[in-house]
Every structure is written in structure tokens, then in C-alpha cells.
């Protein structure tokens, strides 16, 4: 894998992260799926995804 490819991936990830942060600010928080779960439920979902 070339360094150029890795650099592009890093830039794409950075851009996506910025876009996501922007969307979180714009979107009404009560519509956010994150707030509909308790932190423990959310953690369980993450652990289920990792184990599958």
C-alpha cells in the first residue's frame, strides 16, 4: 500500500469527521438516535457490532 493512498484515506476521514460534526450541530438533537438510547444500551450495541 502506498503512502499516497494512506494520505488520501486520512484526508477523506478528516473531511467526513468534519461533515459529521457539522451535521450534529445542524440537526435537532431530539431527533438524534444517540439520545434515544441510554449510554449502556449504546455500549451494548457497540460491543455487539465488535463481536459479530
Keywords:
2 helices; mainly alpha; single chain; flat; 52 residues
Structure, explained:
The protein has 52 residues and is mainly alpha-helical. The protein has one domain (3-51). Helices cover 71% and strands 0% of the residues. It contains 2 helices and no strands. The protein has helices at residues 3-26, 39-51. The two termini are 27 Å apart. 0% of the residues are buried. The model has no long low-confidence stretch (mean pLDDT 74).
The overall pLDDT, averaged over residues, is 74
Q: How big a fraction of the residues is strand?
A: under 5%
Low-confidence stretches: none
Number of helical elements: 2
What Rg do the Cα atoms give? Answer: 16 Å
Helical content band = over 70%
Our count of domains comes out at: 1
Structural class: mainly alpha
The profile of the biggest β sheet is:
none
Number of strands: 0
Topology as H/E string?
A: HH
Distance between the termini: 27 Å
In short:
The protein has helices spanning 3-26, 39-51. The chain has 52 residues and is an all-alpha fold. The chain is flat, with a radius of gyration of 16 Å.
Topology:
Layout: H1 3-26, H2 39-51
